[in-house]
Amino acid sequence: MKKISLFGITLLSVAVLGACSSNSSSDSSSSSSSSSTTTEQTTSGSSVESTEQTTTYPSSAYVSYPYTIDVPSGNSYVIKNITKTTGSLDGSPIITIEMSFTNNGDTPTSPYMGFVVDWDVQQTDGTTTESLNGANTQMANVDNQDLVNMGNTNVNAGATVDAIIGYTLASDTEDVGFILRSTSLTSNPQGFAWANNQ
């Protein structure tokens, strides 16, 4: 009798576990098909987006040049022009930034280093954001080499110079954001943007 009871309990346990396992599988396949549907919607949504003109940053961030910026507790800039070109070393897409730079610090610094300290230059695809690397070594093909050289020359405190600096683009199509480092960790980052279709 004990054997029959033990066999019955074992059989009942196996049936209950099998039912639970079956519900789990059904929940898993239900959630995976829901996930798959979401993926399909996202995929079809992004294919629609790729054919439309979109902007990554608010329209108010896209400025006209010359654009003057006095960075709080930082340097002063007049952005005269931003141009997309090809890097002279490896042919990668770069932007050149022609500017007037005023060193508001206490020690000599180059326009490029001042810009790096004040600004995070970045591109985003909406999912990821990448900070761009400098391209000053890629600008041998830029017409005004005197301004390119000034981009890497230390400027005394209080002095203003014209210079050209550059950044290597992570994407040949995404717009570029210039975010003030002093505001980048706040809920309201400040800066301006450049449209890559110019």
UniProtKB/TrEMBL annotation:
The keyword Cytoplasm does not apply. Residues 23-55 are annotated as: Disordered. Keywords: Signal. Pfam families: DUF5067 (PF16729). InterPro entries: DUF5067, Immunoprotect_excell_Ig-like. Residues 1-18 form the signal peptide. Residues 79-176 form the DUF5067 domain. This is DUF5067 domain-containing protein. It comes from Streptococcus alactolyticus.
